[in-house]
Each structure stands twice: as C-alpha cells, then as structure tokens.
Amino acid sequence: MIELRGKAVADAHKAVLSERLAELQAKGIVLGLGILLVGDDKAAQMYARFMEKTAKSAGFGVEVAHLSADASQAEVLAVVKRWNEDDRIYGVLPLMPMPPQVDPDVIIESLDPGKDIDGLTARNIGLASSGKGGFWPCTPLACMAILEHYKIPLAGKHVVVVGRSQVVGKPVALLLLEQHATVTLCHSKTINLEEHLKQADVVVAAVGRAHVITGDMLKPGATVIDVGINDLDGKTVGDVEYASAIEVAGAVTPVPGGVGSVTTTMLLENIYEAYHARNVNR
C-alpha cells in the first residue's frame, strides 16, 4: 500500500513556483494577495494567519483585512472594491464563514474574476467547466496534483467521486473527465453507495462526514483520495476510515497530511497564474 503524502507533491510544486517568483522579483515585481476576514471565527482566523505566513515565506506580498463581527455588507464590499482596483493585488481570498448580516454570495460575486484565485465566482465556474479558462477551486486542483505526482493512471479508469459540492465534488469530476476517466458522481441520495465504490479504480471522498467510507466498501487495489477533514473525538480524521482502507486499497491519502497540505500550494500557484493572465496572456 502506498501512502500518498501531500508534502512531496507540495514541495515539487513549490520548487517550480519559487523559480518563477525569483524571476519576477529580479524585475522588482512582487505579487500581492488580499486576505479578507470578517468576524471572530477561530478556524477562519487560524487559516488567515497560516495563509499569511505561508504566502509571505514563499515571496508574496500579503495584505490582511480583518473586519469586526458587526461590519456592514457595504464595509466588506468596500474592501473588495479597493483590492479589485489595486494593481498590486493579484489574488483575493474571502474567508468563510461571514456574519449573518453579510451575504457571502454577494461578496463573492463582487470579486474581480481575474483575482478570484479560488474559483468561487459564477464567471470562473462557467469558464472552467466549459474549458475556456478561468480558475478552478484549489482543493480539486490538489487532488489532481496528487494523482499526477504519484502517476496514478486515469484514462479509461472508473472513478467514483462521493460528494457533489460546487467547491470540490463537481469540479473534481470535471477535471477527472478532462483526463479521460469514466466518472460516477455519488451523493447523499445515492442508492447503494457501496455497490458503486466496489467498482471504482479511484475514489475521491468529499462528503464532510467522518469515516463514511470503510475498507470493506472498496475495490481491492483502489486508489483513495480523501478530501474530508473532520473532528472525531478530538482527532482530525477523513471521510475514509484509514485503518480499514489501508488493508484493501493500493494507495491512500492520509488525513491530515494528504490533500490539505497541497491545497495551499495550488492557491499560491493561482496567484501566479493570475499575474500571467493579466500580463502575458492578454
């Protein structure tokens, strides 16, 4: 059984990105990231600090706007507008959740699609899904980067994606189709999930429920990409029960240490892609 650890994937992508950023820095160009945080959610604050530290250490400029929990929607929109108009900012990352008086959909759709580095706007969703450019969400990109790094074959293979969210399930299914996989998309209303999983050469689990998939549900030798991050009795676990999965599967991503560790790198790559789209591809 191969453990598909994310660190090796992230390190390989960071090495390439570092070379690209060094070339820009030699020309005096620093790519800016705007991180928008509204309210007092502890997880969002932790992620904002993590992203700020990670981006700065990689050579990006970072501006964090932390608004109070009673901030109005107009105040939040003003920050987005300022960053949309700031040529130094190449990516804007609005963190969720937001307080009830702020409509996250309105905030997301106010983003300049060219700076929407996590593929949240309707425009980017449409462009990406139709094969006409745009930004893909970073977690699906991380799944694909892991499969590519470890040379997991996809063409002609049967892949079952469990979960149909707009940020993971649907986009990763489309990315898998681009690699000529035969994709089945399962969800909470799927009848007899195990029957589908037993046929899968590759499983992508993105449900958001701890240990919803166990080893006895898998096809022997299958590759398992576990996107889930759940708390179970004080421990961080995936959607897949790791201990039983490794007895059956041929390759599995651990949680933590798998997909999540690659997602951040994909976000940083998208900032560079935003620069490239604005200055090279126009």
Automatic annotation (TrEMBL):
Cited Pfam families: THF_DHG_CYH, THF_DHG_CYH_C
* Tetrahydrofolate dehydrogenase/cyclohydrolase NAD(P)-binding domain boundaries: 137-277
Sequence ranges assigned to domain Tetrahydrofolate dehydrogenase/cyclohydrolase catalytic in this UniProt record: 4-118
Biological process terms in GO annotation: L-histidine biosynthetic process; methionine biosynthetic process; purine nucleotide biosynthetic process; tetrahydrofolate interconversion
Protein name (database record):
Bifunctional protein FolD
* Source superkingdom: Bacteria
Q: What does this protein do?
A: Catalyzes the oxidation of 5,10-methylenetetrahydrofolate to 5,10-methenyltetrahydrofolate and then the hydrolysis of 5,10-methenyltetrahydrofolate to 10-formyltetrahydrofolate.
The UniProt family comment states: Belongs to the tetrahydrofolate dehydrogenase/cyclohydrolase family.
* Gene Ontology terms for molecular function: methenyltetrahydrofolate cyclohydrolase activity; methylenetetrahydrofolate dehydrogenase (NADP+) activity
Subunit notes for this chain?
Homodimer.
Q: Which reaction does it catalyse?
A: (6R)-5,10-methylene-5,6,7,8-tetrahydrofolate + NADP(+) = (6R)-5,10-methenyltetrahydrofolate + NADPH; (6R)-5,10-methenyltetrahydrofolate + H2O = (6R)-10-formyltetrahydrofolate + H(+)
Q: Which GO terms describe its cellular component?
A: cytosol
InterPro entries of this UniProt entry?
Aminoacid_DH-like_N_sf, NAD(P)-bd_dom_sf, THF_DH/CycHdrlase, THF_DH/CycHdrlase_cat_dom, THF_DH/CycHdrlase_NAD-bd_dom
In short, the EC number is 1.5.1.5, 3.5.4.9
Q: In which pathway does it act?
A: One-carbon metabolism; tetrahydrofolate interconversion
Q: Which UniProt keywords apply?
A: Amino-acid biosynthesis, Histidine biosynthesis, Hydrolase, Methionine biosynthesis, Multifunctional enzyme, NADP, One-carbon metabolism, Oxidoreductase, Purine biosynthesis
Binding-site residues, NADP(+):
163-165, 229
